[in-house]
Amino acid sequence: SSGINAEWPLRPGFAYGQTGSGKTFTMIGDSKGQLPGIAPRAYDEIFTLLQANEKKFSFAVSVYMVELYNDQLLDLFDKSHSAKLDIKKDKKGMVLIQNAVIKDVKSVAELQEVFDLGSKNRHVASTKMNAESSRSHLVIGIVIESTNLLTGAVLRGKLSLVDLAGSERAAKTGATPEQLKEAQSINKSLSALGDVIQALSSEANFIPYRNNKLTMLMQDSLGGNAKTLMFVNISPADYNVDETVVSLTYASRVKLITNDASKNADNKEIARLKGIISKLKKGESLDDDDEV
Questions:
Q1: CA 35 to CA 37: how far, in whole Å?
Q2: What is the pLDDT of residues 159-207, one digit of tens each?
Q3: Which end of the chain has fewer surrounding CB within 10 Å, N or C?
Q4: How far is the C-alpha of 92 from the C-alpha of 20, rounded, in Å?
């Protein structure tokens, strides 16, 4: 890691592979929390870094948690799913989820608590290939904003943790009609992800991000302003050799993609003016310090 006080670009991590190959175990860990995966380890690392730099910077950490289920984007912090979620990008290219519930957290314990809350609402089911098969793609977005206490410079970045649902073959999974519908949606989105990876690795002029909500969600993780870590999980079983070859082909293509990570920074005055604009949009009154 380059540290909070240096570049603070987007830092996504995600796992890809067929169903039952261990993606959720890699990203999340075991259900009892005895063998933590990438996500809980990242939570610890985030707040270790923040504490190490607290004399030089002030920090604000917020998190959203969504799943892509049957081509629908659902907020895992909102059981009612009453709000329509839209995928947007800010001027720096950071993907944001409009109308999603965003929770502020101030410690590892609070971050783990809100993650556990959201996880309870995720779609899972049992198949012949996986006793706890993820039926959706999970996206955790942790947004970190730091303010330099000396200069007032503001840095903003996002850690995206993505647990992709696995590709499936109905003949192997013994899927129910509902699970077959879920699998078709999963495979369609993973195919779209493959098209984006192919386009990026071949340096194509057009990248088909908008062909699927999954690739729109991951647009700032793939070929954008990011430092991206991808895990490819494969099955050791010989009857899964075809799926293993597909997964390894994905991996070889991803290695060819070059991202361009840059600093997401605003100075103190720009940050102040943005705050004024935000208040005016909401119809709030300005403080004495807000005078232009």
A1: 7
A2: 999 888 876 565 555 556 776 788 788 889 988 988 998 888 888 899 9
A3: C
A4: 36
